[in-house]
Amino acid sequence: MVLHSEGNVDAMEYRVLARKYRPQNFKDLIGQDVLVRTLSNAFSQGRLAHAFILTGVRGVGKTTTARIIAKGINCIGADGKGGATIDPCGVCANCTGIMEDRHVDVMEMDAASRTGVDDIREILDGVRYKPVAARNKVYIIDEVHMLSRNAFNALLKTLEEPPENVKFIFATTEIRKVPVTVLSRCQRFDLKRLGMEDLARLFSTVCQKENITIERDALYALGRAADGSARDGLSLLDQSMALSVGEITAEVVQGMLGSSDRANILDLFEETMSGDITTALNHLEKMNQNGIDPLSIVQDLLEVVHLVTKCKVQPDYMDVSLSESEKQKSFDLAQKAPMVQLGRAWQMLLKGIEEVQTSFSPFSALEMLIIRLVYLADKPVAGAGTQPLEVEQKKKVEVGRDDNALLSIASSSTNVKNINENDPDIERCPSNFIEIVDMFEKKREAIIHANLIEKVKPVRVEAGLCEIEDTGDIDPDLPGRIGRLLSEWTGTPWQIALVQSTGEKTLREKMVDAELEAKKNAKNDPIVASVLSNFPGAEIKSVRKIVRHTDRE
Hints:
By secondary structure, the protein is α/β, with parallel strands linked by helices. Helix content is 47%, strand content 10%.
């Protein structure tokens, strides 16, 4: 992230870019404006906390920031008379010692390898002694969340009331694992992921200093792969420089990363969503032959689905990493693809990640995923013998009635193409609620059948419409599921509406009432009454009709 070298380097020794361009002062930190502004005010007002905790993803500069803070606290200036400053000079004995990781009063400890209470006690034993050469002792503990519980407990008292000349700086990638008793004693800073523009600007500046030419698309490809981490991005840039000769192209970066360019992925997504299965599979085969990792294809498709969805809901959405042609294609796809189709693709691709990771043949799993996406798309499959159903987007439909107000209708109209009216699979439309319940029992939809009996209070049933009372006890998805299945089974669009009108009793309530009435009538029977009187404590458990069969003549 820094844009000047870290000390003198021997001509025969190569220093990786992540170390060579490491920030040496707060001006060089990229994308951490809140942290820099807060610390600047703290230095200028003399309000420095005794303990800091820095958190963020890998490679955003936590340890680097800790070292800069240590330099600022102990800098004495080029003339040896300066005080604590937000702009350390970088040339005094304290600054150079800290920069070269050899200062006796600035100690770094990796908590990932030194997790025990004994390691913390070594620090605590040295806390009571005054600094040898610097103004303050600074203890930098990296990956502090790895400390044991006993180690944290041993640190608490000293952390709460440290000596005046002692500062603690903690760094962690997993802030939730740090005890709240420690967090409450520290000033916390959350280092942000670096944005695409910040990373591209950093890579461009480094390439200029290294006399390397880099294409714009290559910059953004590296930025996407870095995922907000400057260190990861510089490591990838280092690798691409070694792979290239004087110029880094997008093709070089994509080949190095084993990924495909976004335009290629947009084409694949368009072919998949339009139902062109032959072209999509051929496209996929070419990508496989080019050595592109199947998992990265799924991840790239997920990014494209996210991009197209954002373009659909935000017409003014801008992604600086997109070329003009990619922007145009993204918005074109957003106009064509219905939201329900994008949502379905997102869910299937998320599930597909696990399938590709665990499959014996990742590419075969990817092909099956693409085939499922094509056949479950809303549009017909090009060149296929059968066409999938076209499912219209769910809509909120208002139905006015004088005696009630419709709360919502889960409209799941299904437009079935090329259906033969004599098709034996098509059921006759039910004309009443009992027939609807019987149809779900016949189709073995046990869960919905149970809900229809136990919870649903019908208000009105007519062709294509069933109104039920909104009791607040019905699963919000239930009306839509009932409507979809009835539409599929009958070939007629069905709407299941939740209304405020009072409906009939549920079938279960009717069954209970009928049983109580049967028991009441049974008690009036002379024979039953005699049994009950002769056997005190006897109860009628159930009443069943006896079917009498007569012999045929």
